[in-house]
Amino acid sequence: MSSVIFLVDHSGGKISKAAGELATFAKGVGQSVAVVLSSNPAEIITQLSAFGVDKVITASGDWDKYSSAAAAEALAQIMESEKPAAVLITSSARGKEIAGRLAVKSKSGIITDAINVDKELITTQSVFGGSTTVHSAVITGTPIITLRSNSIEAVAAPSTPTVSEFAVTISDNAKLSTVTAATPAVKGGRPELTEASIVVSGGRGTNGDFKPVEAFADSLGAAVGASRAATDAGWYPHTHQVGQTGKTVSPQLYVAAGISGAIQHRAGMQTSKTIVAINKDPEAPILELADFAVVGDLFNVLPQATQAIVARKA
Amino acid sequence: MKIAVCVKQVPDSWAEKKMANGLLDRASVDAVLNDLDEYAVEEALRIVEANSASGEVGEASGHSVTIISMGPERATEALRKALSMGADDAILISDAALSGSDALATSLVLAEVIKKGSYDLVICGTESTDARMSVVPAMLAERLGVAQLTFAGKVKVDPAAATVEIDRVTEFGTETMNAKFPVVLSVIEKINEPRYPSFKGIMAAKKKVITTMSLADAGVAASDVGSSAAWSTVKDALPRPARTAGIKVTDEGEGGSKLVDFLVEKRLA
Ligand SMILES: Cc1cc2nc3c(=O)[nH]c(=O)nc-3n(C[C@H](O)[C@H](O)[C@H](O)COP(=O)(O)OP(=O)(O)OC[C@H]3O[C@@H](n4cnc5c(N)ncnc54)[C@H](O)[C@@H]3O)c2cc1C
Ligand SMILES: Nc1ncnc2c1ncn2[C@@H]1O[C@H](COP(=O)(O)O)[C@@H](O)[C@H]1O
Fold it and tell me: At what angle do helices B255-265 and A298-313 cross, to 10 degrees?
C-alpha cells in the first residue's frame, strides 16, 4: 500500500489539532507516516497514536533555530528514502514555506490551501472568497499538498505506530538565517481561532469595546476574532485578525458583530458553515452572506443574546 | 545597497472574479499593483532613505531600488505606480510562453533574473491577492540559495555589517531572526503605511526606464514555464451554489433572543 507522509505541527510537546486532521487525511489515502521534527518526540508520539498513525519518523535537530529551510531539507531527505505517494503539510505561513521549498527541491507540483484530498489525490480548494470550488491534481513528481486546518473532523483510531529515527544532515545553506529570540503568541483561556468550531468577531462597530464580543464568545465557548479595522486601531491583537492578511477560519458558526464585510474580511471567513451578522446598517455587505442577520446595535443585541445563552445553560 | 522588489499585477481584489478554462479570467477585471506588494516597495524606499546622506532615494543616495515583475505587457502600469512611489527602475519579464505559469515557474524566472543583478536584498509581499499561495518568496530563497527572512513586521538593515534583522510575525507569535546579505525578505501589511505617489513622483516615473525581457533574455527555456509545464492541473472549477438568502430581523428589543432561538434551532447553542 502506498504511504502518505505528513508533517506534525507541535509546540511545547503538544501536537496541534491540525496534526490529527492531517493524520486522518493521510489514512484516507494509504499508510499514514508522521514526520516529527523534534529532539524530544516521546510525548508527541503518544498523542499521534490516537489517530491511527501507522509509522512515525522522528528527526532531531535545532528546528526552532533555523527558518523553514531546515525543515524543508529534512522532509526532502525523508521523502527521498520513503518514496511516499504524497506529502501533506498544514496551510500555515510556515507550512506553506516548507511546502514551497520542498516542491522546488523534489521537482514536484504543489497545491496550497486545499480543504480536501481524496483517495486519487485529487484536491478540493475553495477560491475567490468561497464563490468557486476547484478540483486539482499534481501531475509532476510527488504531490505536495497543504491543507487548511478545520477542514475535516479528525478521526480517533488508536494505533501502535512503528517508530524510527532518521539521521538528517542540514546544510550550511539552510542555516543562513537564524532565530535569536522568540515570543510565542499568548494563549488565553479561549480556543485557538483556526481550531474553534465557533468564532465571534468584532469590528470597528465595537468602537474599541470588545467586552460584549468576548462575553458572547465565552457563553458559546467560542474563539474571538477581529476585523483589520479593529486590529489596526490596537483594540485587539493582530494574531486575532480574520481575513486575507489575517487568519482563514471555517468554523461551524461565525458571528460578525460591527463588521461591514469588506472583501478582504470575507476572504477569511466566507467558507464558515453558518454565518450570523449583527450590524446597525441594513445595507452592510456582510448581511448578504448571513444566514441570520440582526439589524441593530451590537451593544444591545450581544448582551441580550449572551444572557439568553447563559439562562439556557443554567 | 542594491535592492530588488518583486511585485505582481493582479486583478483588483474588490472586483468579482470568474474562472475561464481552468484559469482566472484576467481580461474581465481591472488590473492593479498587488496591494500587499506596495508595502514591499515602501519598505525598500524607507531602507534607502534611512541609509542615504540626504534622506532621499535616487542615484545620489548610493543605493538603488529595482522593481521586478513577471507578467503580461500591461503589467507596466503596475510598475509605473511603483516607480512613481520612488523606485529607480524596473524590469518586466513578459513572454507569450509564460501564460498559465504556476508558482514554480514564476519563481524560476524571477530567480534567473535576480541572479543577473546581484542584489543585496530582494523584498516581496507576503502574498499575491490572486494566487494567494504565499510561496514565491520561500521558493526564491530556495532557488537562489540565500537566506530567507519572511513575514517581517519590522526590518533593521545594517549596510556596513551587511546584515538584516527582522521581527517575524506569524500565527505562532513573534521571532527575531537575522542573516547576512544577500537576503530574500517578505513584509507583512502591518510594517508601514505605503506612500501615495506625489505629482512630482508621477512625472519623474514617466522618464524612468522599464526594461522588458523575454524568456530568452531571462535565460529560461520556454518548455519550463507556462500552462504546459505546470506541475499541477485544474480538473474543474464550479461556481458554488449561491447562498440562499438568510433571515433578517430588525432589532426592536428582541434581536438578541431571536438570534439565540436561531442558534438553538440550528443546534449551534
Ligand atoms: C491589503 C489589505 C489587506 C486587508 N486585509 C484584511 C483582513 O485580513 N481582514 C480584515 O478584516 N480586513 C482587511 N482589510 C481591510 C478591509 O478592507 C476593511 O477596511 C476592514 O475589514 C473593515 O473593518 P470593519 O468591518 O470592522 O470596519 P468598517 O468597514 O468601518 O465597518 C464597521 C461596521 O460596523 C457597523 N456598526 C457600527 N457601529 C455599530 C454598532 N454599535 N452595532 C452594530 N454595528 C455597528 C457599521 O454599520 C459598519 O458596517 C484589508 C485591506 C487591505 C487594503
Ligand atoms: N509574477 C510575479 N512577478 C513578481 N513578483 C511576484 C510574482 N508573483 C509573486 N510575486 C511575489 O511573491 C509574493 C508572494 O506571491 P504568491 O506566492 O503568489 O502568493 C508577492 O507578494 C510578490 O512579491
Answer: 50
3-state helix, strand, coil in chain A (%, to 5): 30, 30, 40
Q: What is the pLDDT of residue A177?
A: 96
Which residue's alpha carbon is at the smallest distance from atom 23 of ligand 2? B124
Contact yes or no for B96/B35 (Cβ under 8 A): no
Print the domain residue range for A251.
193-313
Distance B127 CA to ligand 2 centre (A): 6
Does residue A239 lie in a domain region?
Answer: yes
Q: What is the CATH number of the domain that holds A71?
A: 3.40.50.620
CB contact under 8 A, A137 and B248: no
Whether residues A162 and A200 fall in one domain: no
Section A86-97 average pLDDT: 96
pTM to 2 decimal places:
0.89
**Cα–Cα dist B231/A108, whole Å:** 7
Cβ separation B175–A181 shorter than 8 A: yes
pLDDT at B13: 61
CA A171 to chain centre: 29
CB spacing of B17 vs A131 below 8 angstroms: yes
Q: Is A251 in the pocket of ligand 1 (CB under 6 A)?
A: no
A139 and A284 housed in the same domain? no
Work out the number of other CB atoms within 10 angstroms of the CB of residue B158: 12
pLDDT of residue B24: 64
Q: What is the mean pLDDT of residues B183-203?
A: 96
> Which of A183-192, A228-237, B128-137, B200-209 shows the lowest per-residue confidence on average (mean pLDDT)?
A183-192
Q: Do residues A154 and A35 share a domain? A: yes
- With residue A66 as reference, give the H or E element that holds it: none
Name every chain A residue with its beta carbon within 8 A of the beta carbon of B180. 176
Please give the domain boundaries of chain B with CATH numbers for all domains: 2-229 (3.40.50.620)
Interface of B with A in 179-238 (CB under 8 A): 179-180, 183, 188-190, 230-238
The answer to whether residues A51 and A101 belong to one domain is yes
CA distance A97 to A61: 19
Average pLDDT over residues B62-86: 95
pLDDT digits (tens, 9 = 90+) for A26-49: 999 999 999 999 999 999 999 999
Q: Mind telling me how many Å the CA of B76 is from chain A's nearest CA?
A: 25
Asked if A237 has any chain B CB less than 8 Å from its own CB, the reply is no
Contact at 8 Å (CB) between A31 and A4?
yes
- Per-residue pLDDT, B241: 72
ipTM: 0.88
Beta bridge partners of A250: none
What pLDDT is stored for residue A155 in this prediction? Answer: 94
- Within this chain, do residues A120 and A8 fall inside the same structural domain, yes or no? yes
Here the cell at position A190 is 479561549
Residue A187 lies in a domain: no
Residue A131 has pLDDT above 90, yes or no: no
